[in-house]
Each structure stands twice: as C-alpha cells, then as structure tokens.
Give the backbone structure.
Amino acid sequence: MRRFAIFIFCSLAAFSQPAAHAQEPLVGLAAPLTENFELLGQQMRDGARVAAQSTGAQIVEADTQCSTEGGQAAARSLIDQKVSVVVGFLCTDAIDAALPLLAEAGIPVITPGVRTSALTDQRERTGWPIFRTAPRADAERDAVARLLLPRWRDAFFAIVDDGTIYGRELAENLRATAELQELKPVFLDTFRPQLDNQIALAGRLKRSGATHVFVGGDRSDIAILARDAAGMEYDLVIAGGEALRAEESAIPLAEGTLMIGLPRWADIATETARSALDDAGIVPDGYVLPAFAATELAVAALRAGSGPIVQALQSGTFQTALGPYSFDEKGDLEQPLYRLFLFDGQTFEEVE
C-alpha cells in the first residue's frame, strides 16, 4: 500500500512539473541579432533575458535583421512558437512588416525601440495591437515647449536654430506653442553652424535684450555661443535639446546650460533591476534597461487577469524597472519621458 501511494505521488509529480512549466509566460523577443544593428539587438536580448529570468518567464528570440524580410520571418517564427506577446523591434521597416501578421494572430507588440510617430498614429485605422515604451519622434519638440515655457513666461527669451531639419523643427514648435500661449520671443533667428565663433549671434541676442535663449542646434555650437556671450560679459541662459548628450566638444560646455532630454536609464532604474543586471554581468547600456522594462511589462500584463492581454495593456498601469507605464488610446506611453537637466560642469543633473 505504501509503495502504491509512492507510485501515485511520483506519477502526479511527473505530470505536474511539465504543466507548471507550461504555465510560464511565453514572451517573444524580436530584435536585430545579426547584420549592422547586432550590437543594439544584443542589448535588447540581454535586458529581456534578465527580466524574463527575474519574473519567471520564457523568452523566444527571433532575428529581425532590421529589414522587411527579417520582420516578416521573425513574426512567422514567433507565431509558430505560440508566444503570447512580442517585445522588441528597432527599425520601422521590420515592425511594419511584422505587425499585420502578428495582429492577425492576436499577438500584441511592445516596442522600446521604434520612434516613428506614424506607427501609433495609424493604429485606429490598421487595428494593429501596438504599444510603444520608446518616445515618439515628435516627443522631444513637444517636451521643449512643455518644460521651458512655464519657466520662461516672465523672461525675455529668444529662439534660434541652425537651419537643419532637427534644429528648425524644435525651434518652430517652441515658437508656435508660445504664440498659442500669447507669449512672444524678443528675437528669432537662424544662424550659421560650425563656425569657430558665434560672436555675431551673441551680439544680436544681446542687442535684442534676450536673457534666455533656446538653441535648436548641436553641442559644439551651443558651447561656442556660451563662451562668446561670456566674453562679452553677457549673462545668458542657454537651453538645447538632447543633442547636448553628444560626445564632448572641443569647447567645453558652459556650466548652467539647460538640456531637454531623456534621462540615462541607469540613473532612474530600480535597485532590483540594477542588481539583477549586475549579477548577470551585464552593463545597462543602450537598450538593455528599456528592453528589461518592456519585458517586465509584458509579463505583468499576461498575469493581470483572465481577459485578453491587449485589454490589460490598454487599461492598466504597471510598475517597471523604469517607473510606471500606462498607455493612451494610440498605444503611446502616458508618462512623459523627456525631462529638464542642468549641466553642473561635469554632468547633467535633473531639475526638479
């Protein structure tokens, strides 16, 4: 009798172990794991793998190669392996090719890498189950106006740009938003970039009476403008976009320069996430933490209830390694990612 009981127990255990294994959330990772973007894809893979291990999920990987053909092949592979949700994608061509197939299979996608605004703008028309944890392409320019105008409302501010598409879009959106708020800059200008000095621009700003200026341009030109303004004993507050995160320029960036940009992910990540990556011997560079957080989000949504995961993603708020995530009706993050930073002479510190 005792032997029979042991036999029954062992038999049940043999059946229950695979069943428990099958209950683990199955998350697909679509990333460029070969070709030109392999390094970035490896960062996504590292973050997703560690997050899956931390949350008790399984990762199934597929190489998108950052191409249309690769995106389609990755989608078919992940569908065949019956994943419940897909995390990843870095390139627009790959995700555009994959989404129709994944949508037909009822598999939502969470991308921490694709910024193209049209991806979510066309969601209502396409019905694609897309959720984006990366910033939209137009998020930076909107953040410039959102973060600067309340602070500069009573200041004599100017707006200048270097004539590039990037610089002009930032400057023009700031000007248009200021106008809607019945604010008018004291000076508008397009300057010639990559000069040895910006004395002429500094002189025009000083004559206009501007005390603050937003520069749609790169780090080098902003550093030169600050140097030349200081040489005129002209006290000028200068702000720029995330191009200020570029490598150190020949002219040091002036202390007090403002930047509207994304945080360094390791600076805002939870201690739990940093410890998990450290234990795995992974440096949290590039897409490591965004992929980690997106994978956490995917697993949490799968475990949120008995309803469809798309419904959970659309209606829920989930705590991740990079803070709370929830989505608007387009599938974009409701939480603003861009923040205001001040250069202290060594690094950018967030302005509260």
User: Anything to note?
Assistant: Confidence is low (pLDDT under 50) at residues 1-22. The first helix runs from residue 2 to 22.
